[in-house]
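Duplicate of earlier report; Distal membrane-arm assembly complex protein 2 input re-posted below.
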Amino acid sequence: MSAHLMSLHRCCQRSALLLVARRPWSSSSVSSPPPLHTRLLLYLTQRFYDVEMLLRWKSQLKRRKIQKKNVYYSYTQRFHGAYIAAAYYILSIKGGFRYVDQTDWFRPNQRGKFSWDFMNHKDTHLEEVDMSYTVINYSGLQNLEGQRSLRTLSLRGCSEVDDWFLARLHMFQDSLEELDISHCPRITTGGLAALRNLKGLRRLDISSLPGISTPGLIIILLEEMLPLCQITANGYDHNLRPEEGEEKKHTQAQR
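Output:
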């Protein structure tokens, strides 16, 4: 029996026991029922495990959906080439891209539908890729491997981009010039250190990263690692020490 069936079986058994436990209140005519707040707390307690199981299922289904969207398109790459496979992956997760020496962008519409004209560019390199607010993750990045002409990559607001993802960006160290990782909630200071491999970067946007505790210090370190790069860091209180912000708040509260 699978894990999901076992969980459902335990849930049904628990619900049956709870119905039996409530029966004396409904059938007894001698003792009065407990107060309303007591009944409410007991009801919530009885439903806690059912809700917890449903939330766990929802989380598992979400993770499986993300993994499915980031599957490695080895079959497409083998029969149509790396550029077609990369283009198809980008469009399938609602990203966009532009080919070298072209002005038009390939993007899906609001319903996720896209033109298949990219199939006519089997040997054309990708120059700009916009994956903003998509579910690209570490596994899906493998589909972009081999894009030696990629100059611009936007990952703005990508919820699955983390430190491991940034460490894998070294595959673009010979071509990448512009990188936007702003508003990515899972990036920390350790991940930013991996950007030292991207010596060709000219523009880097690290605005509004909630995992950064000392943005002022991080910006200084990034400027030392990437001296030719223009760094954008909006949405921070640029302190060198995290305690400075806390002391400032404490002083304002005393006033």
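The chain is about 45% helix and 10% strand.

Merging into the original ticket.
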